[in-house]
Automatic annotation (TrEMBL):
This is Translation initiation factor SUI1. PANTHER family: EUKARYOTIC TRANSLATION INITIATION FACTOR 2D (PTHR12217). Keywords: Initiation factor, Protein biosynthesis. CDD domains: PUA_eIF2d-like (cd21156). One of its GO terms (molecular function) is RNA binding. It comes from Wuchereria bancrofti.
């Protein structure tokens, strides 16, 4: 049985919740055209939505009302779909026991996946609307999030060492790792991760070109030498012109 519920949030927003067999699977905020999944739906079809992975420390900040800043996103623990701005995005958590848990939250992107890459994965990226354990989740069957061991994905070396004192360092993370075939949530041929790899290759080519240009500049005349040559060249031409004029007068 399918039913529609009208809900008013504590901030005053009107929300429509679509339930199937008494379990909320979709919701939309009045005035918006985006249809968001609940955590229940992301557990049923996790491959249908882009998912970002964070650690427990970052997740606690999100529960306090903060936006997800891209510095807190762990990669490459999960390949994800390419998405646009204001698209529905799920959030999974890497626990201190190296379990990938979730999705545990749903929100919308503040920029597209391509813009995130262009910004170097910096700045606010996702605004959260719904969490595992909130009142919307409480309307359903109280099911728990999916969990899978990160060790089974051969990605233990990519895990950050601390979950309480700092965000994961993006510079220390591997960007071109392959997800294991046993990870049922992985999306093959992800354009999001492909773009990350292409960006790294392009940066390498750019750096090589800059180094070559610097070497060529060192081998050529300096700016001061060129200016000196031009000055003496102009002086010589000026003197010759004056001499020719003097001879003509005689």
């Amino acid at each position: 049985m399918v039913s529609l519920m009208h809900v008013k949030c504590y901030k005053g927003e009107d929300v429509d919740v679509y339930t199937f067999e008494k379990e909320p699977l979709l919701f939309t905020v009045m005035g918006e055209e985006v249809l968001y999944p609940t955590v229940y739906l992301t557990w049923k079809i996790p491959e249908a939505f882009p998912i970002l992975v964070i650690n427990e420390f970052v997740y606690q900040k999100l529960l306090q009302g903060a936006d997800l800043f891209l510095q807190g996103v762990i990669r490459p623990l999960r390949q994800t779909l390419e998405f646009g701005s204001h698209a529905a995005v799920g959030i999974s958590v890497l626990t201190s026991s190296k379990q990938l848990r979730g999705p545990v939250a749903v929100g919308y992107s503040l920029m597209s996946s391509m813009q995130m890459i262009a910004n170097g994965m910096q700045g606010p990226g996702v605004r959260l609307l719904h969490f595992y354990g909130d009142l919307l989740w409480d309307m359903g069957t109280h099911a728990k999030p999916l969990e899978i061991s990160a060790g089974r994905m051969n990605l233990a070396d990519a895990l950050p060492g601390s979950y309480e004192t700092e965000f994961p360092s993006l510079g220390s993370l591997v960007l071109d790792g392959k997800p294991s075939e046993v990870h049922v949530e992985a999306v093959k041929g992800s354009s999001f991760d492909t773009a990350l790899n292409d960006r790294s290759k392009n940066n390498g080519l750019t750096n090589a070109s800059e180094e070559q240009a610097e070497e060529e500049l060192k081998d050529s005349d300096t700016v001061e030498t060129l200016l000196e040559r031009c000055f003496f060249g102009c002086t010589e031409v000026s003197c010759n012109q004056k001499r020719a004029a003097a001879i003509g007068c005689w």
